[in-house]
Every structure is written in structure tokens, then in C-alpha cells.
Design goal:
By secondary structure, the protein is of the alpha/beta class. It has two domains: about 210 residues, Alpha-Beta Complex (Quinone Oxidoreductase, Chain A, domain 1), CATH 3.90.180; about 140 residues, NAD(P)-binding Rossmann-like Domain (Rossmann fold). The chain contains eleven helices and 16 strands. The strands form three sheets. Strands 3, 5, 6, 7, 8, 15 and 16 form a seven-stranded mixed sheet that branches. Strand 10, helix 7 and strand 11 form a beta-alpha-beta unit. It starts with a strand and ends with a strand.
Length: about 350
């Protein structure tokens, strides 16, 4: 008897996506097999397929944002069983790796190797998907959280919040968030939760600007109105901001970030830089390299603990992710339309979600 087959939505090659059939993944002793309840395409998928950011991939099932139901677990899995509803983080490290013991589990086994779905292996846009080290990489989905909302906990919330963590946002500080797509909006929300006194949200799409205010942004900046550094310094009467979180833009955005941050400040990057060979940093404004302006960039932390802690914010009303969910689809076949929406960035879009249960 042959192996059981499944359907998946895949990157067939550069600039090409489509449906393929593959074998259902096999489960090791520490692992789990899951079927998605809800999934969401990400701008990262766009970078991978159309900007060639990760290099050549063929017949790679896309997707890394999901809530799911456990179908099968390995013999050594202790805390999960078939039928459990779970949150699946986009980053699923190998927890025994040396890098995990060093506190950089995102890079377990190599640069960015904690990011497995739709990078190192097939992603979650399939009838079934594989999760390594289930006890460390799955989190039970609380009854109070809609599986659709839980999808935002897999990537958008932890990535945006990681921007605020890397920037070490503190009480009363002035923070600029450059790029207010879903990740930037969560960086705004995370900065406010950490106590930021003033938050500049840089973006032009009206829907995103509206939601940014709802999450606590105090000032809106549109790059169409002129240089964003000049606009912010005008509003602060020449005072530099304490922290900058880059959640959008490109390799040239670092130039603007360094020019607006104070000496001793931090520029935090959580933006997936899909193109360009080098990052532009202004020499003089960086204090000739000695201005104590720290530049930090990081991939969101994965793992069970992070998902469990973030879920408490939803359960107890500290965070509402519903404003991110602007478009809902109800058929597996709608994944292609949802992904193309993320590619084209329609004016009313923040995040599309496809429900599968």
C-alpha cells in the first residue's frame, strides 16, 4: 500500500505558485502531525516567491502562520494528543541545539534555521503539516480564543512585540515605528504595552493608520508628505527619538532610522529584507561609528512558552487582534487569492485569514 497523499499550496519555482500533491509527512518520536484550522499568508511568502529572497525553492509548500488540530503524535510526546487544538508558532527551533542553549534558538543549527516552515521544509498550507519537537513547539489553544484570532499569535504578534523587546522600549520613551502593516501595528501595540510615552507610526495606507491610532500611536507620519526624519524632528522641536523599530521599508530605511534616533538610542529591525546586498548606515549621524547608537535585528522567538504567554494577553483583554483581520476566506482554494492580496497590498488590507474548519 502506498503512502497517504495530501494537497498543498506551494512555491513551484520563482514567481510561480500552485497546488501540488505530496506524501503526508511521517512523525518522529518527538514530533506531531497537525491539520490546520486557520492559516494566513504573510509578506514573507511574497518575498520568498517573487523577490527570490531565500534562493531557489521548488515544490515547497508555503505558509508558516496557523492554528491547528493535532492528528498524530510521536511516542515520546507527553503534553499533546490527537484532537488537541493548538497554536503553532512560525518559528519551531531545535531545542537541544547549542544555539538554543545560547539563547538564540531562532538560529538553532544555523542562521535562521529555527524558521523551518516554508523555508527549511514544507509549510502549513496543506491538508497536514509536520511539527518538530511538539512539546516545545506547540501551545494549547485556550478555549477563549477563536482559532482565527490565534493565527495572529503565530507570527504577527510575536514579531511586532520582538521589535519592542529588541528596542528595549521603556516608560515614557518616544518611539518611531516605520512601516505599519500587521507587524508594525503589533510593534506599536507592544511599545505601548511596554510604556512608550509617544509613538510615531509611519505609513500611508488609511486603514493601517486608523488601526495604528487604535493601538496607541500618538502621531501619524506619511512619507508622501516629505522626508520622515524632517517631519518627526519638526514635531519633536528638534529632539531625537529614543527608539526606532523598523517593520517595513528596505535596506535604505536604516539611513532614516539612524538619522532620527538619539545618541545612545536603539534601532530595532524586524523587517524581512528581501532585496539588496548591503544596508545603508549614515556614517556621520552614526557618530563616525562611535555614537553608541545600537542597531539590533532579530527573528521572532518561537516555542511554546512564548505562545502561552502571548495568549494570556488575548484571554485577559490586554490585546485585541481582531482589527488586523480585515479579510476572511472559508475555502482552502482561496489561499491563492489571499496570498496575492498580500502581494498587491490592496488599500483596505491588513491581514487575510483562511479558515479550514
Amino acid at each position: 500500500m502506498g503512502k497517504k497523499k495530501m494537497k498543498g499550496f506551494a512555491m513551484l519555482g520563482f514567481d510561480t505558485v500552485g497546488w501540488i500533491e505530496k506524501d503526508v509527512p511521517e512523525v518522529g518520536p518527538l514530533d506531531a502531525l497537525c491539520k490546520p484550522l486557520a492559516v494566513s499568508p504573510c509578506t514573507s511568502d511574497v518575498h520568498t516567491v517573487w523577490e527570490r529572497a531565500l534562493g531557489e525553492r521548488s515544490d515547497l509548500i508555503l505558509g508558516h502562520e496557523a492554528s491547528a488540530e493535532v492528528v498524530e503524535v510521536g511516542a515520546l510526546v507527553k503534553d499533546f494528543k490527537p484532537g488537541d487544538k493548538v497554536i503553532v508558532p512560525a518559528i519551531t527551533p531545535d531545542w537541544c541545539a547549542v544555539e538554543s542553549q545560547m539563547g538564540i534558538s531562532q538560529h538553532s543549527g544555523g542562521m535562521l534555521n529555527g524558521w523551518k516552515f516554508s523555508n527549511m521544509k514544507d509549510g502549513v498550507f496543506a491538508d497536514y503539516f509536520h511539527v518538530n519537537e511538539a512539546d516545545g513547539n506547540l501551545a494549547h489553544l485556550p478555549d477563549e480564543i477563536d482559532p482565527v484570532e490565534a493565527v495572529m499569535l503565530s507570527d504577527m504578534v510575536p514579531t511586532g512585540f520582538h521589535g519592542a523587546e529588541l528596542a528595549e522600549v521603556a516608560y515614557g520613551e518616544t518611539v518611531t515605528v516605520i512601516g505599519i502593516g500587521p507587524v508594525g501595528l503589533m510593534a506599536v501595540a507592544g511599545s505601548v504595552l511596554r510604556g512608550a510615552g509617544r509613538v510615531f507610526a509611519v505609513g500611508s495606507r488609511e486603514k493601517c493608520r486608523e488601526v495604528a491610532i487604535g493601538y496607541g500611536a500618538t502621531d501619524l507620519i506619511d512619507y508622501h508628505d516629505g522626508d520622515i526624519v524632517d517631519q518627526i524632528l519638526d514635531k519633536t522641536h528638534g529632539a531625537y527619538v529614543d527608539k526606532v523599530i523598523i517593520a517595513g521599508g528596505d535596506v535604505n530605511t536604516f539611513d532614516q532610522a539612524v538619522r532620527m534616533v538619539r545618541r545612545g538610542g536603539i534601532v530595532s529591525n524586524i523587517n524581512y529584507l528581501g532585496t539588496g546586498d548591503y544596508i545603508k548606515i549614515p556614517r556621520v549621524e552614526w557618530g563616525l561609528g562611535m555614537g553608541h547608537i545600537r542597531i539590533a535585528g532579530g527573528l521572532m522567538p518561537g516555542g511554546r512558552k512564548n505562545m502561552e504567554y502571548l495568549s494570556k494577553l488575548l484571554v485577559h483583554g490586554r490585546l485585541d487582534v481582531k482589527p488586523l483581520l480585515t479579510h476572511r476566506f472559508h475555502k482552502f482554494e482561496d489561499l491563492e487569492q489571499a496570498l496575492l492580496m498580500m502581494k498587491d497590498k490592496t488599500p483596505d488590507l491588513i491581514k487575510p485569514v483562511v479558515t479550514l474548519a
